[in-house]
Specification:
This protein is an alpha/beta fold. The chain has one domain: TIM Barrel, CATH 3.20.20.140. The chain has 13 helices and eight strands. An eight-stranded parallel β-sheet has the order 1-2-3-4-5-6-7-8, with helices on both faces. β5, α7 and β6 form a beta-alpha-beta unit. α3 runs parallel beside α4 and α5 runs parallel beside α6. The two termini are about 20 Å apart. Bound molecules: adenine (ADE) and zinc ion. Zinc ion binds next to β1. Keywords: Hydrolase, Metal-binding, Zinc.
Length: about 325
């Protein structure tokens, strides 16, 4: 399972930081982040909203382009050890230069240099999805979209939106998504994790995304499920994240197989692996154990992920 080549489309760079990486950086910079960790040294949070606070506290120690360089390299190496050959990572200008385009360019150059090293040394490729944070509001989203539009290219391939799905409504962010679309970026947004089917419909209708981050609660509306299947809208499903955060109580309860059976295009990702004590290997093993997945399901999600990846056609061909 570990060596099976894997494609990961939903992955937050800061959320992939090992606790030891954050702890070491905090020590070097004398930042107090003791509330971020539990007694065993893992990330400590009680629910999703607390998770977002802990995530942002941990991220506060990532202060320079060099920090993001080192993080990216460590994260891609860790992924490669689990067979991940291609990752699309969410990276937010809010954390990388505060939305300033010139500062963002500096962070991006450092991150891309690390990605190139990872490709050379571990055979792991990466692309960047620029990520507004929904609870930071539409103005900051617009600044992020401008950063994305100014740097679109082989490495920066998309605009995504994470954060608190209950903050504001997707239409508030339409300007940012329109700007990104016009600049040639691909689009995705988190929805259907904490919000129900209406939340998924809103990002499809108002932001015109090609993929939905999570999207799993679409299962509560059969008409929406049919619509997703018909229109070929791809879900970036993160089952381990959903179980760890309590969207579903157990792996057996997770609707990923039902969505697949109903013809929806699903992919598998980790979201924020050390926060949820997961890896791509663990995701695959749990799907095999609790949802009876075998070679054909893994081959299907991989093929769907390559088709739905935001990179160029040549890169996709090499991944097939
Ligand atoms: N940012 C990092 N992980 C997230 C998640 N699971 N949902 C929304 N925003 C996030
Ligand atoms: Zn996410």
């Amino acid at each position: 399972m570990k060596n099976l080549p894997k494609i990961e489309l939903h992955h937050h760079i800061e959320g992939a930081a090992p606790p030891s990486f954050i702890r070491d950086l905090a020590k070097r910079k004398s930042v107090d982040i003791s509330k971020v960790f539990d007694e065993s040294g893992g990330y400590a949070f009680t629910d999703f909203w607390h998770f977002l606070q802990v995530y942002e506290a941990a991220t506060s120690v990532l202060q320079t382009p060099q920090d993001y360089h080192d993080l990216t390299l460590a994260v891609l190496q860790a992924g490669a050890e689990h067979g991940v050959i291609y990752t699309e990572s969410f990276i937010s200008p809010d954390f990388c230069g505060g939305g300033d385009v010139d500062a963002w360019r500096d962070y991006l150059a450092a991150i891309e240099a690390a990605a190139n090293t990872a490709t050379r040394d571990f055979g792991a490729q990466m692309r960047c999805i620029v990520t507004p944070v929904r609870h930071f509001g539409p103005d900051k989203a617009r600044a992020s979209a401008l950063c994305a539009a100014e740097t679109v290219g082989e490495f920066v391939v998309g605009l995504g939106m994470g954060g608190d799905e209950k903050a504001g409504k997707p239409a508030d962010f339409a300007y940012a998504f329109d700007m990104a679309r016009e600049a040639g970026l691909h689009l995705t947004a988190h929805a259907g994790e904490w919000g129900g089917p209406a939340s998924v419909r809103a990002v499809i209708d108002d932001l015109r995304v090609e993929r939905v981050g999570h999207g799993v609660r679409a299962i509560e509306d059969p008409a929406l499920v049919d619509d997703l299947a018909e229109r070929g809208i791809v879900l970036e499903v993160c089952p381990g994240s959903n179980v760890a955060l309590g969207v579903y109580q157990t792996w057996a309860d997770h609707p990923i197989s039902k969505l697949m059976e109903r013809g929806v295009k699903v992919t598998v990702s980790t979201d924020d692996p050390p926060f949820f004590h997961t890896t791509m290997t663990a995701e695959y093993e749990n799907l095999a154990r609790h949802q009876d997945w075998g070679g054909s399901e893994f081959a299907t999600v991989n093929a769907v992920a390559v088709d739905a990846a935001f990179c160029d056609a040549e890169t996709k061909d090499a991944l097939r």
